[in-house]
C-alpha cells in the first residue's frame, strides 16, 4: 500500500504502526468479538483503555496528581468558551494575541455575558510573524491565555511567561507532546487531538484541580467539575478516538517520550528551515527565534509559482502543502508522526524545483 507524505495541519498523519495495530484489532478487540467502536463505554475493556490513556499521558507530560486529565469533545474551539465559563468567575481575562486561533479564542470569550477581556500583548502589527514580549498579567485577572503554537502563522511560545498567582491557560492544539513544557507552569492546557494525538473528535484538557468547580448553573456538558467527577464519562465519550490516542501515547513512549519527539522534531524542522534560509527561491516569513517546530510556512514570494510548486509536489506524493487560505504560500506541518525521510525528500524536491524555476522562470 502506497502512503503519501501528508503535510496536513490537521487532521494529520498518524504513525503507521498505530494504524496497523488499529487494523489488526478492528474486528475483534482483545478476543471480545467486537470492535472498539462497538464496545460499551461502561465495559471493563473500555475502562482499561481510557485508564491507560490517562496514565500514559500523565507519564509522557509528567502531569502532577493535583491536575485532572479530561477527555472531552467539541474540539479546541469549544474550549474557547468552556475555559471562560469555568474559570472567569466574573473577573477579567487577559489574552496574548499571536494569530488566528488566539483571535478566535478572544472573540468567543467576548460573546459570553459577564466576561471582560483584554489583550495585553499582540503581534498583529507585523502579521503575527513574531512573538511579542508578554508583560505580567494584572493581579486581578482570572487567567492569562496564550496560544502555545500558532498553527497557521508558524510561530511558537517556547518561553512560557511566569504569571505568578494568575493561572496561565494554553491552547496547545498543535504542539502538545511535540515540545517539552512543564505542566506546573500552567493552570490549564487544552488541545484538539487531530494534530498530534489521534483522530478528530477528542479534546484533551489538563486542569489544576483547585481551578474547577464553583461556577453555578453551568450546563453539565460544559462543566469541568462534572466531567472530572464522572471520569470523562458523563455521557458517551469519543471511544474510538480515545483508543487511538492511547496507541499513539504508547508509540510516543517507545520513541523516547516527549524529549525524544522534541529532538526529532528539531532535526526535521531544522532541515527544512536551513534549506529555506539558504535558498534563493524560498523564504520564511517568521522570525527565527520563535519558529514553530510543527508548522512551517514558506513561500516563493510569487503566488503563481507557489501554485506550481504545490501542484508539482502533489504529483510527487507530497500532499497538503498549501498554506492556510488566510496567509497563502505553503505550509509543511511536521507533527510527531511525520517521518524524517519525508522532510529529507521534500528538501531534495525543493532543490530540484528551485533549480528549474530560478528567478521565477521555467527553464527547459
Ligand atoms: C486547530 C486548532 C484549533 C481548532 O481546533 P478544533 O479542534 O478544530 O476546534 C484551535 N487552536 C489551535 C492552536 C489549533 O491549531
Automatic annotation (TrEMBL):
Pfam families membership: Aminotran_5
Residues binding L-glutamate, per UniProt: 42
Residues reported in the UniProt entry to bind pyridoxal 5'-phosphate: 76-77, 101, 151, 171, 194, 235-236
Its signal peptide is none
Q: Per the annotation, how and in what number is the cofactor bound?
A: Binds 1 pyridoxal phosphate per subunit.
EC annotation from Swiss-Prot or TrEMBL:
2.6.1.52
Q: In which pathway does it act?
A: Amino-acid biosynthesis; L-serine biosynthesis; L-serine from 3-phospho-D-glycerate: step 2/3
Which GO terms fall under biological process for this protein? L-serine biosynthetic process
HAMAP family to which the protein is assigned, alphabetical: SerC_aminotrans_5
**Quaternary form?**
Homodimer.
Output this protein's name: Phosphoserine aminotransferase
- Give the gene name: serC
